[in-house]
Amino acid sequence: MSEKFTDRIYPKIKGIWEACFKHPFVQGMGDGTLDLEKFKHWLMQDYVYLIEYARLFAIGTSKATDLGTMNSFAKGLDGVLFVEMDLHRSYAKTFGIPEEDLEATDQSAINTAYTSYMLNKAQAGGVENVAAALLACSWCYNYIGLELAKIPGALEGENYGSWIGMYSSDEFTDLNENAMDLINKLAEGKPERELKVLEEIVVKTGLFEYMFWDMCYKQETWPEI
Ligand SMILES: Cc1ncc(CN)c(N)n1
What is the pTM of this model? Predict the structure, then answer.
């Protein structure tokens, strides 16, 4: 059996996950010192990011050529819409932000670039492109959630404990494993040239993950000119 795609790419993205974990936004969630306004920026930007991200799973479902693959994409879609986005809705309720305001958030420049890149790669290629484009998202957050959960007291933190709890949960870990299994199955037996294309998509979406944390930390939207 050939090497799993996720094992092959791990050395190339490990450093990106570590950089995301060390980012002051993420460290601030870990020790509870993150400014709530920065977190609210993440909350609103991420809600509209997830709406676009959910479309990837719908594209994957329609491009799938077997029922097992359709089921895996459909499971991922359900996870985004009803597991992850429930966390955002619950935080919004605590902050007094109406759901309509969340949904009407204007996507920042980085958010627009990231979701446009993912959707373009998903639409332009085969079903394996879709699986590559959605992988970094769940892998990076599950990595961060599990690392933050190791910090004593982080899971009980007043503001960020439920964030860390959700992204380190068995349910979210299972959704990430579903995404990993999908790309491993769809990349299996592909020639080196095609694997390199899939790797580039994962590395670039991984870098977008880092840029997204930075955008939220700086509360960036678009340049005012
Ligand atoms: C930007 C971003 N990346 C990843 C995830 C985790 N699905 C997220 N909610 N937002």
Answer: 0.98
